C-alpha cells in the first residue's frame, strides 16, 4: 500500500468504527453473535488467512529466530545499556510526539471541518504530504531547516537538529496526518444540536467542549494516537538524517537494528526487534482497550 | 415569564425566513407555532432561544431585551426535534447536565442534584431508567428524557421543536395529553412547534399560524378555526374550497346569484369566497347558487360530494348527511351557512394544496 492508500484506508476505518454498534460483552462470551445476514463465515475465514499470510507469519518468524538465541543471550542483549537507551528514546519520543499530535492535530482537524477560510482546501491537501513524501526527503529537508545554520535552527536558541529534539520534530511531522485524517470524518458527523443543547442548558463553550464534544471524539482520537505512535516507533528514514545518531544520546532502536544487520549480527537484530514488537503490542493493546471502553459508552443512538 | 416578540426579521441571503413577526406570549401560556414545512417555525423558536441571530427586531423576556444576551443567559429549556441527548452520558447525567454546568457559586450540591434528577425522572414517568444510556431507550423515552433535561434548569421559557414529530400516532396522542398535564403541573411558559394542526388545536391555549416567514394570525383554537384572519389560515386549517366572486356594494355576486355578506366586509372588486364542506347545504334547484353533483363518496359518518358551481364550473366540496337522496349528475341549489370573503389580491391569497 502506498502512503496515500493508507490514508484512505484510515479514513474508512475511522468511519466504520464510528458507526459500529456497541459490542455487547456478556460474562464469559467469547464470540460475537454473527449477524443473520450471510457472509460471516467467509469474512472470518478470509480475515484469518489474510492476517496469517501478511502479518502473523513474518512476525512469527522474527519471534522464532529470537527464540533460537536462548534466554541468556536474549537477556544479555535486552539489558545492554545502549539497547536500553535506544528503546527508551524510541518509545518515549514516539509517545510524546503522538500526544503532541493528538492535541494539535485535533485543532487542525477542527479548523478544517468547522470553518471555511481562504486556503482551506490547500491546507487540507497539505496534511497528506507527510504520507506522500519519501521519508528520506522529509528527513533531509527537516535536518537542513533545523540545522544550527538553517532557517528555523538559526532562530531557535537551542540546538534541535542532531539531538533528541530533532527526532521529536521528525516524529511529529510524520504523525500529524494520522490524527487529522481519523478525526475529520467524525468531526464532520458531529451533531451540532448537541452543542446547542449544552449551550441552552447554560454550559459555557469550554465546558461544552470538554464534557460533550471531547468524549464523543475520544475513540477516534485514540485510534489516531495509536496509529501515529505505531508509525513513529517504526520510523527510520526521516529520523536518521536529523537525529545525528550519537550512541546513548540520539540513537533510535530501528537504527540499532539496521546497524546490527550490517554487522551480520542477525541474532541481536532480531532480539531488539522482538523486544520492540512486544512493547508496541502491549501499548497498542492498552490503547485499543481504552478506545473500546470509550466507544462502548457512545452506543449507536442519539 | 412573559415573552414579547417585536418586529423580528431574519434573512438567509436574499431569502426571508422570518419577516416582521410580532407576537406576545403570556406568562404560563402554552402556545403552538403552526405552519407548513419551511414556514419559519424552527427559525423563530431558535431565535427565541438565541441559537439564531436576528437581523431586525427585539425579543423581550419579561422586561429585559434578550436580543443581545447570550444563549446561556436566557435560561430557556430547548427540546430538539431529534432530542440531541448526550450519548456518552447516562440518562441521569443527561438530566443533571445543566445543573452541573453552572459555575461554582450557583451549582447545587451533588445530593441536591441527585434529588432533583430523581424528581424529574418521576415527573416524566421514567423512574427506573436513570442508569441507562440514551442508545438503550425508545424514541418516546428519549423524548421524555430530553424534556426532563430541559426542565432541570428551571427555565424561564420552555421551547419544543416538533416534540412528537418522530413518533408513531398512538405514542403521539399519549405524549400530547401527558405534555398538557406536565404544563399544568409546572406552569412554564411554553412554545412548541408543530405542523400538525390537530395537535396544535388540541394542545395549545393559543395557536400562532406562520406562512412563508410571516405571522398570519394568533388566537385561540376557536378563533383560528372559526374566524380565520387570512385566506391562508382558512385554507390551511381544516378543509375548505373557494369560488371566485365579485363584490359589489356589500354583496357577493356569483353569476346571476347574489349572496348578502352580512357582517363580513370586503371592498368592491374581484374576491374569493371560502367555504368549508360542512357549511354547504343542498336546496332544491332554483334556490341559491346553482350547481351540479359530479362525484359522491362515503367518508365515515358522512357523504362527500364534489359539486361544480356556476358558469365557470368551479368544483367545491360538500359534506352531506348519508340519507340525502341525490345521485351523481343531479342539478342542485346551494346555500352556504358560513363562509369568508377575501379580496383576490389580498396578501397570501395563495392557499396551500
Ligand atoms: N441555514 C440556513 N440557510 C439558508 N436557509 C435556511 C437555513 N435554515 C433555514 N433556512 C430556510 O428558512 C426557511 C424556514 O426554515 P425553518 O427551519 O424555520 O422551517 P420550519 O417551519 O421549521 O419547517 P419544517 O416544518 O420543515 O421543520 C426554510 O425555507 C429554509 O429553507
Ligand atoms: Mg422545523
| Largest beta-sheet characterization of chain A | none
Largest beta sheet: strand ordering of chain B: 6-7-8-3-9-10
Pick out the low-confidence regions of chain A: 1-29
Apparent shape of chain B: elongated
In total, the number of domains of chain A comes to 2
- Helical content of chain B (DSSP H or I, runs of 4+): 10-25%
- The shape of chain A is globular
How are helices and strands ordered from N to C of chain B?
EEEHEEHEHHHEHEHEEHHEEEEEEEEEE
Q: In the CATH hierarchy, what is the class of the largest domain in chain B?
A: Alpha Beta
How many domains, in number, for the residues of chain B?
Answer: 2
Query: How many DSSP helices of chain A?
Result: 13
Report the top-level CATH class of the largest domain in chain A. Answer: Mainly Alpha
- The CATH topology name of the largest domain in chain A reads MetI-like fold
Pfam families (chain B): ABC_tran, TOBE_3
Protein name (chain B): Sulfate/molybdate ABC transporter ATP-binding protein
Family (chain B): Belongs to the ABC transporter superfamily.
GO molecular function, one term (chain B): ATP binding
Q: Can you give a write-up of this model?
A:
The complex is a heterodimer of chains A (302) and B (353). Chain A is 75% helix and 0% strand. With 302 residues, chain A is mostly helical. Chain A has 2 domains: 37-68, no CATH class; 71-297, MetI-like (MetI-like fold), CATH 1.10.3720. Chain A starts with a helix and ends with a helix. Chain B has 353 residues and is of the alpha+beta class. Chain B folds into 2 domains: 3-232, Rossmann fold, CATH 3.40.50.300; 239-341, OB fold (Dihydrolipoamide Acetyltransferase, E2P) (Beta Barrel). Chain B has 9 helices and 20 strands. Chain B has helices spanning 41-49, 71-74, 91-100, 110-123, 139-152, 169-186, 197-203, 221-226, 231-236, and strands at 3-12, 15-25, 30-34, 56-61, 64-65, 76-79, 157-161, 189-194, 206-211, 214-219, 241-248, 251-254, 257-260, 269-275, 280-283, 289-299, 302-309, 314-320, 331-336, 340-343. In chain B, the strands form 4 sheets. A 6-stranded mixed sheet of chain B has the order 6-7-8-3-9-10, sandwiched between helices. A 5-stranded antiparallel sheet of chain B has the order 13-12-11-14-20. In chain B, strand 16 and strand 17 (302-309) form a beta hairpin. In chain B, helix 3 packs across helix 4, helix 3 runs parallel beside helix 5 and helix 4 crosses helix 5 (139-152). The radius of gyration of chain B is 25 Å and the shape is elongated. At the A-B interface, helix 9, helix 10 and helix 13 of A face helix 2, strand 6 and helix 5 of B. The site of adenosine-5'-triphosphate (ATP) has 12 residues of chain B, from strand 2 and helix 1. Chain B: Residues 3-237 form the ABC transporter domain. Chain B: InterPro entries: AAA+_ATPase, ABC_SmlMolc_Importer, ABC_transporter-like_ATP-bd, ABC_transporter-like_CS, Mo/tungstate-bd_C_term_dom, P-loop_NTPase, Sulph_transpt1, TOBE-like. Chain B: This is Sulfate/molybdate ABC transporter ATP-binding protein. Chain B: Belongs to the ABC transporter superfamily. Chain B: GO terms for molecular function: ABC-type sulfate transporter activity; ATP binding; ATP hydrolysis activity.
